[in-house]
Amino acid sequence: MKKKLSFIVFSFILISSAVAFEWGGTLKNDSRVSINAEKLVVYNQTNSLNVWLSVPITKDNVWNFYVEGNYKFLLKPVPKPVAIINILDIPLLKVSGQINVGNVPLKLAVGRFKVTDFTSKIINNTCDGVLANSAIGFVNIDAYFGFTGLTNQLASPGFLAKNGMLNVKNGNLYVLDNPIIPAIVKLSLPSIFANQSIVIQGLVAIDCSEEKNSKYYATVGLEGPLYSNLFYELRTTISTESFNSISNLSTIMLTWFPTRSIRLHFMTDYASGGELCFDNFRTVSSFSQSELTIIELSDALIPSAGVSFSLKNFYAYFDVKGVFSIDDDLKFKYVIAKLNSNLNLFSDLQIGFDVNGIFATSEKKSDTKFSFSLKGTFLF
Which residues pair with 50 in a beta bridge? Predict the structure, then answer.
């Protein structure tokens, strides 16, 4: 076994020295302190190491190989009991390039990489699969087929936030994710009229677990400029679970760029929750509307406003959301506020801080929380 491992390492060194490859990585630190309405203080420490490698397969760089490895250490020493988690992950392992089918170019990506649907709110997972992209006339076509069952569940969005660090078995570095087969087909008609674009997407998530709770989504979107630096996006999704229910997710967003350095957005998300003819909307990936608590995109009306500012080496973003329950009557639940900032001290060193707050109603006053974190990133 040692001889085989030595041979693989030696072969990799020989290949790397003969090929014009690129590589790099990041070291990240995140120290977070949070406190709730009951004055319970929680301290979380997160350190991560990320290394990536890019190797051209063909001399013209049309086909390339990409790989990325990640190690993350999470510590919660306060309050007791102490929780420690180590995570090993390979979020990227793919070959990508282009072939010609007749006179039509076809872009392909095969392997492991992150997959996000058109809404960016239904699925946002690392998957193993195949992505194809082509343009026929004025229609852009994207098609994806993959599998989630071999990826690391610990690294999936929202898993730790939803399950808690103490519920992860100590010593588990890699836990296989729930087996789901996502298939996505997206048709884009850019600037079809007056610079307006139309997107039509179909998404199927076949559940291969014992629950067999497959989900089906159909999305239509319209987006484009309204006036000068003012843009809009309209999206609506109809979903069903195993053809036993029907639900809806709709989004309207306005984005304004008053200057090159400032971006303002106003958005409202509606996720059905049992009213009218709809059932609760459910996403494929586990998402959270806040880093401090779990607020699923279901049975919710979420208006939000945000502003981002960038100037040379500094970037800041502020966002505030209101969360309303819509199951029976419209009922206010939370206000969520977030401030992120980053400063590039040097080309390879970045520091920043985050402030998060969630303000709950008197009925859920115990959910009120605040957090402050210091971040540092070193690139090499």
Answer: 26, 70
Confirm if 250 and 236 have CB atoms less than 8 A apart.
yes
Contact yes or no for 321/302 (Cβ under 8 A): yes
Q: Would you say 79 and 68 are in contact if contact means Cβ atoms under 8 Å apart?
A: no
* Spatial CB neighbours of 48, under 8 Å, sequence gap ≥ 6: 26, 27, 28, 70, 71, 72, 73
CB 71 within 8 Å of CB 57: no
Distances from the Cα of 40 to the Cα of 85, 187, 369, angstroms = 22, 49, 9
Give how far Cα 51 sits from Cα of 69, 129, 173, 324, Å: 5, 22, 17, 41
Is 73 a residue whose pLDDT tops 50? yes
Three-state secondary-structure class, residue 163: helix
**Gap between the Cα atoms of 283 and 51, Å rounded:** 31
pLDDT digits (tens, 9 = 90+) for 262-272: 999 999 999 99
The tokens for 4 are 């085989």
Tens-digit pLDDT profile for residues 14-37: 555 455 789 999 999 999 999 987
Secondary structure of 33-70 in HEC code, one letter for each residue:
EEEECCCCEEEEEEEEEEEEEEEECCCCCCCEEEEEEE
